[in-house]
Amino acid sequence: MKETGNISIHTENIFPIIKKFLYSDHEIFLRELVSNAVDASQKIKRLSSIGEFNGELGELKVKVSFDKDKKTITISDNGIGMTAEEIKKYINQIAFSGATEFVEKYKDQGDDKGIIGHFGLGFYSAFMVAKEVEIISKSYQEGSEAASWKCDGSTEYTIGSAKKKTRGTDIILHIAEDSEEFLEEFKLKSILEKYGKFLPIEIEFGDKVINNPNPIWTKSPSDLTDEDYLKFYEELYPFQEKPLFWIHLNVDYPFNLTGILYFPKVKNEMQLQREKISLYSRQVFITDEVKDIVPEFLMLLHGVIDSPDIPLNVSRSFLQADSNVKKINSYITKKVADKLAELFKSDRPAFEEKFANIGLFIKYGMISDEKFLEKAKDFCLVQDTNNKYFTLDEYSEEVQAAQTDKDGNKVYLYTTDVEQQDAFIQSAQNKGYSVIKLDTLIDSHFINTMESKLEKTQWKRVDADAVDKLIDTGITLEAILSDAQKESVKKVFEETLNDKQKVVAVEAMSPDELPAIVTQNEFMRRMSDMSKTGGGGMGMFGAMPNTYNITINANHPLISKLADLKDESEQKALAKQISDLALLSQNLLTGADLTAFIKRTVGGF
Ligand code: ADP
Ligand code: MG
């Protein structure tokens, strides 16, 4: 039998177009051909299981090999095979998907989940790298004759009989000059591992099987142990620290999606994201660009998502508008929130232990996703300077009595640096206030969000003001100094300070406090922080030098002494020493100022 015919498309020659424009990534040809071979194997398995094929199934396997001298790459399977008629039908009509037909035909007999099909131009992507493609195939049907098909990339093909004795298909690519890079073992192996690592049929390259045909995401969570999840994580990310916990995704309505998301150990948001979530479609790797599908705040998670319902060969803007993609996105958000809520409820100590790591995800989610915030505000924790954790509700209770100001606002005090702000923390604690630690980069955004979400709360860094003024309870201490004395003390200080320092007030504070303290106005500091972390339009604040407000403690014995001194230069020397001491207590005294301070202090002995 020998016959010549025309591939039925209307353009004179579609192959140059395929070659240039179909996929920017030529390596995709291997994904397509191996997927077809896997499909052919899955089909014969199906036919056998429903009794339509009664012959020997054998060990189903896909083999990929290459011959550097002959410049060929061969993909072989012992799947369903094709008769000459089928080749004409399935191969010669471009964009006619036999996968779709097969699924349609057998859809009432069990599930169709095994068939990949339908990526696009599928088989024809071979012409991205081959100047000639041969098919040699023998159908599973009893008594069928083996067929051979050959096409050189024009619209003309030849079809005839072949000598093949065993069931299945060989696809032989005669690699074009400009694609000889694919005739390298390392190259082929890495492409196979990239796309085929979890294909459901064994893929043999050289004499090694390159894939794990039964990845755990395809199994039921009830059949899996923690050990299985950890082992799979290691398989995905060989050199990573153990994950904290994981979520097994499993839905089939209104879209089909399975997968496992791992929460990795990330301590700070600067940590580079090298390991990503991979997107699969029926166990074929598609991409690790999962933006749009995975909510942005979960992009730092690890793991896999497998969904045949995500459109694959479409543009980004289409993906964003796709209703399945939107549903998948909110499903993942909900699953993650539910999992966290469950962990919190079932084992709070363990949850607290992990909070240093997962707090980042939770806070990021609360800032960026209204729905997530609704759920997460029940399990988001804050930690005080004694390392005790509170939920937001618990914390509100905790500070109710001592930290409500005269207008009924709860004032939450926080520190961004326990060491540097120690003097302020101690003063606050002595007054019976609680201080929480909000010391990661995301916290400044978190504070802004929470202030607008939690009614009648105000968040203030513990050094935003003198301790007596942090929470305005309407009660003021008596000052020992007269108003006139205060005025003159203020003047002495003003004459000694430099242009970055400013005396705000001489205030009645507790005599136990320092004689002077340096504070940073909450609003100005936040603006300057935001400009530092890249908040747009904050240039003005970013360009401003940091200025410090100095508040003088009118009730401190040293200040009384200063007020009583007769000699003006002695007064100034003491004032300078007191303000430098205040700066020093917060690590704000540096360089020549610090050296001078030390010299003066030592000289005093
Ligand atoms: P799709 O996989 O989306 O159906 P392809 O262009 O990749 O489209 O393949 C077209 C059809 O050719 C397949 O549906 C299948 O019927 C047939 N085919 C391709 N490769 C093989 C193979 N190795 N064994 C059997 N049939 C195959
Ligand atoms: Mg295909």
UniProtKB/TrEMBL annotation:
Q: Which SUPFAM superfamilies match?
A: ATPase domain of HSP90 chaperone/DNA topoisomerase II/histidine kinase, HSP90 C-terminal domain, Ribosomal protein S5 domain 2-like
Span-the-membrane segments of this chain are none
Q: Please tell me where ATP binds in this chain.
A: 32, 36, 77, 82, 97-98, 169, 316
Q: Name one GO molecular function term.
A: ATP hydrolysis activity
- SMART domains per record: HATPase_c (SM00387)
Tell me the superkingdom of the source. Answer: Bacteria
Q: One short Pfam family name for this protein?
A: HSP90
| Record's keyword terms, sorted | ATP-binding, Chaperone, Cytoplasm, Nucleotide-binding, Stress response
Q: Does the keyword Signal apply?
A: no
Task: Tell me the PANTHER family matching this sequence.
Answer: HEAT SHOCK PROTEIN 90 FAMILY MEMBER
Kindly provide the name given to this protein in its UniProt entry: Chaperone protein HtpG
The lineage is:
Bacteria, Pseudomonadati, Bacteroidota, Cytophagia, Cytophagales
Gene that encodes it: htpG
